[in-house]
Amino acid sequence: MRILTRTLIAAALLVATPALAAPVTLKANPVDADGQVTFGDIFDGAGASSSVVVTRRSGPSVVMEAGQLQSLARQSGLEWDNPRGLRRVVIRNASLSPSSATPPAATATAAPASAPRYAAPESSARAERVISRNDIVQVVYIVGGVRLSISGRATANAAAGEPVSILNLDSGRTIDALAVSPGQAIAGPAARQARAALQ
User: How many Cα neighbours within 13 Å face the side chain of 72?
Assistant: First the structure.
């Protein structure tokens, strides 16, 4: 009888655990300063788990799979429900991140089905860089209501609204794209229309 009681209590605790998890919200512009990426760098409301190291960044940015991030958060008592259905989250070096008071919301979000919004550069000299050479960039190709997304490595620096070539690491081909925000670019007809609007 005692064994059965203990088993029932243990099962009840396991079922109750997700309800006790603290809900967190993904930051609009996740950044870290020292290469040690913590829950506090990624989420608002991480509380006591803010200092838990999730991954390490060795370059200008690091990309995490959303599912893996959710799993790690749960293990630390945090609950991120990923309301936008993101597939990846980009965390950038804080010293390379745009210093504007309002971080670009598209930094860690998947691009919408329509062409993403971007800020047209004031000039090549004054425009703020959103993609640096060797950054891992998510490129969205939109045509006829179909949205395709791939990740690649930037071959040059670019400000929002400027063209940038992205190397597809799987195929070895280079994609002509338009920088949108940190870690984000668009290609295809949507990019051509956006580029034409700037001329």
Answer: 18
Distance CA 152, CA 5 (A): 54
Q: How far apart are CA 128 and CA 76, in angstroms?
A: 36
**Under a CB-based contact definition with an 8 Å cutoff, are residues 24 and 50 in contact?**
no
Give the integer Cα–Cα distance in Å for 69 and 42: 10
CA 42 to CA 115: how far, in whole Å? 26
| Confidence bin at 20 (pLDDT 50/70/90) | low
Q: Which of 56, 51, 23 is nearest to 37 (CA)?
A: 56
What DSSP assignment string belongs to 24-57? -EE-SS-EESSSEEEHHHHEET-GGGTT-EEEE-
The closest of 129, 116, 107 to 194, measured between CA atoms, is: 116
Q: pTM to 2 decimals? A: 0.44
Nearest CA to 108 out of 124, 85, 79, 125 is that of: 85
pLDDT in tens, 108-143: 444 344 444 444 444 334 457 889 999 999 998 877
